[in-house]
């Protein structure tokens, strides 16, 4: 197992991150409340859910949409991730994220969702290196020099030699364009979330780039041990936790404890879980409003229920949340007895979209 001395603090460009296990961008999940909760539980850096360049350019300060660019004063450094098709719009969208206060701009070349690929976005760019490199170069040239730019990629469209060659062509273009980091998911776009993530490919990437650019890994990080083992086995600079962090912010402090040679912390008790859910609900109310918060919290409560020994019963109750009263009643029904929680078993993870 890795030790504290082997986990060097992560720096991306001129931004000091610290502990190199961070929270990934997650479509529909990594909004301000989730990011803040993660930071309060040991995540040294978080990335917002991916936003389209066209959406960013049209974004107004209306109450319904302004939350997309909200940043909590305690969550710096925080990354803004964007996705699109046209180099010029991409660069302009990146500037909207800079103006909003994001510390790092992350370009998404990894999303495998069909409707995204069909619109020549996300993982589609791995099939067209010239366009991809143009996007990276124009984004880097447009964003102020003090703001690092990074890119998220999968290991290719598929497992052909041509796809592999295109991946490394884009990677070399990222280095030449002045990017500060790359996050690599060990699956192909074609795989989506089926089959194991190929960690050995991350080792190849790190060996290829040396110290020219920071390499973070992604894929199949469902517990604290996974995070440390990925770094240890591949030699990469850090990892981004995606599905493994939804409803389980404790994964970051668990990984930190193990990295320092301390025992694995006990699972959060039911009282500790309830306190975090209340905190999360309050952040939802502050970010959105009292009407939207219960509906948005429902999906998070479903995920938090995975830490409960009677998770199936709790999950069913969580699906019924429509109001603050429903939320409070769920906590009263299932969390009033401060007994032991459980570690989230890896088999519960489904296919939430990590972009």
CATH topology grouping of the largest domain: TIM Barrel
Query: Helical proportion?
Result: 40-55%
Main beta-sheet annotation: 9 strands, parallel
The CATH architecture of the largest domain? Alpha-Beta Barrel
Question: What is the helix tally?
Answer: 13
Radius of gyration: 20 Å
CATH class of the largest domain, named Alpha Beta
Distance linking N and C termini: 29 Å
CATH superfamily of the largest domain: Aldolase class I
Number of structural units classed as domains: 2
Element pattern in H and E: EEEHEEHEHEHHEHEHEHEHHHHH
Q: Please, what is the average pLDDT?
A: 91
Say how many strands there are. 11
Structural class of the secondary structure composition? Answer: alpha/beta
Strand content: 5-15%
Which shape, going by the Cα principal axes?
A: globular
* Low-confidence runs: 1-5
Protein described:
- It is globular, with a radius of gyration of 20 Å.
- The chain has helices at residues 32-40, 53-58, 87-100, 114-117, 129-142, 161-177, 199-209, 224-234, 250-259, 270-287, 293-304, 311-318, 324-335; strands spanning 10-12, 15-18, 21-23, 46-47, 51-52, 78-83, 104-109, 149-154, 181-185, 214-218, 238-241.
- The protein folds into 2 domains: 4-259, TIM Barrel; 270-335.
- 41% of the residues lie in helices and 13% in strands.
- Strands 3, 4, 5, 6, 7, 8, 9, 10 and 11 form a 9-stranded parallel sheet that branches. The chain has a two-stranded antiparallel ribbon with strand order 1-2.
- The protein is built from 13 helices and 11 strands.
- By secondary structure, it is of the alpha/beta class.
- The model is unreliable at 1-5 (pLDDT under 50).
